[in-house]
Amino acid sequence: MNSQPETISNKTIAAIVATGLMSFCGVIVETSMNIAFPKLMHQFGVTTNIVQWMTSIYLLIVAIIVPLSAILKAKFKTKTLFITAISLFICGVVIDSTAPSFWVLLLGRAIQGIGTGISLPLMFNIIMEQIPKSKLGMMMGFGNLITGIAPAIGPTLGGIITTSLGWRWIFIILLPFLLISLFLGIWGIQQKSPLRQVSLDFISCILIAITFSGMVYGFSNLSAVSVMSWQVGGAILMGLIAMVLLIIRSLHLETPILDFRLFTNHRFAGHVLIFFLTQMCSLGFAFLLPNYIQLVNGNTALTAGLVVMPAGIGGAIFAPIGGRLLDKLGPRKPVMTGAGLMALSIIIFTTITLRMSNQSIMFVYIFYMVGMGCMMGTIMTSALASLPHHQQTQGNAFLNTLQQFAGSLGTSLTAMIVALSQRGGSGANATAIGTQHAFIMLFIFVVMILITIWRVVPKSLRQK
Fold first, then answer.
1. Contact 134, 302 (CB under 8 A)
2. pLDDT confidence tier of residue 92, bands split at 50, 70 and 90
3. How high does pLDDT run on average in the chain?
4. Cα–Cα distances in angstroms (integers) from residue 276 to residues 182, 194, 407, 461, in the given order
5. 436 with 315, same domain?
6. Are residues 374 and 426 in the same domain?
7. I need a labelling partner for 245 at 20 to 30 A (CA). Which of 114, 152, 252, 254 fits?
8. How confident is the model at residue 463, as a pLDDT?
9. What are the backbone dihedrals phi and psi of residue 336, each rounded to the nearest 5 degrees, phi first?
10. Are the CB atoms for 216 and 411 separated by under 8 Å?
């Protein structure tokens, strides 16, 4: 990495906060709107599988745009990308706050997805480029805090706003934050890396779109339709074929959109696996626990949001703490500690699933999220530090892309397991049994995480 002064300038901090605030707004909308789905279904006369596209279209667009981040960063100034991204996001928010129909609402969400897809990698690129090595872990943790606290407060905020003001205010209330982000970004974002002339391979773009369209669509239907149907099996097969073709094409291009040669670095590949499985577990939890609180314990969506909120806040707070531990102790200790807390929490949840009170859910989930908070930023930092500096933008593109897909996959798999149990039985007990089975799957993932950590995460951070 380039030599840097040990102090962090005010402009660099402003740039990180600006890009982080925009990502924060993107996650807030996603998690808050889930609570408003019943009202949207009633107001616009759409079914459950249609209203889910409020989330699916957003995640799909983000997953398609994020892989382009390395090319975009090479061709365009960082400030130009940021202003374009936030302008699109503000446009999408205005459209959604005034949408006369559900399809206009979806259009707004798609435009927001383009903005988020452009901006999401910017914050971590700025951190890796402009933060001194001695403070890298802490600032990566701070970046994860900004985006990590959004899922914690999103469901509760969505419940309060929808109940008291109406769902349109979920979008309206974001506008002041987006304007603050815009002004901070215009003032603070600086160009530190030289621009390069790189060509955009349109065949790769098409293959990326087919890959994620097939995967997201297929897995989103997993809990409702047979695996052998074209909506699930056919869509996933189409996505897999496109992904294989994308890999083959990328290996023959000098400057591919996604450079799969990075995975010949076994340390980076192992970190990516840890990151992917951790994200799957976390989004699986985000689906399982609120549904358990509502369907098994018989509480409202607002109560469910309040029960899980302390854990989300705890996880966000421990993100910079985990980063600080990385700076002092190296990556392995905070990562092993975090994974250990995750494993212990899942064991407890699996044991008590059939009789969980809201209080026990709140308490045990705090331990899980604290562990996850310690891990995520540390794993990202250690993964990118395992690459040469000129490959870190590509590595960041992979991590941000897989984060979106892992969330969709984790939610879909846990939803499928619970749905299978509900079909075999009825009432709260069937949901509880399905939740227990899903916890067993998540525990297997955590065991895989622990084994991989032991094999690939170094004791000290060595940047190339």
1. no
2. very high
3. 86
4. 31, 31, 9, 21
5. yes
6. yes
7. 114
8. 52
9. -65, -40
10. no
Q: How many other C-beta atoms are found inside a 10 Å radius of the C-beta of residue 293?
A: 24
Cβ-contact 422, 434 below 8 angstroms: yes
pLDDT at 449: 95
- Return d(Cα 346, Cα 350) in angstroms, integer: 6
Range of the domain at 241: 201-256
- Point out the domain boundary residue: 190, 222, 245: 190
Closest CA to 370 of 410, 324, 310: 310
For the domain that residue 69 is a member of, what is the CATH number? 1.20.1250.20
> pTM here?
0.82
Structure tokens at 207: 């293959």
Do both 214 and 269 map to the same domain?
Answer: no
Half-sphere exposure of 219 (CA within 13 A, CB side): 22
Query: Of 133-147, 235-249, 410-424, which range is least confident?
Result: 133-147
How far, in Å, CA of 76 to CA of 121, rounded? 14
CA atoms 75, 77, 79, 83: torsion sign: negative
pLDDT band at 423 (very low <50, low <70, confident <90, very high): confident
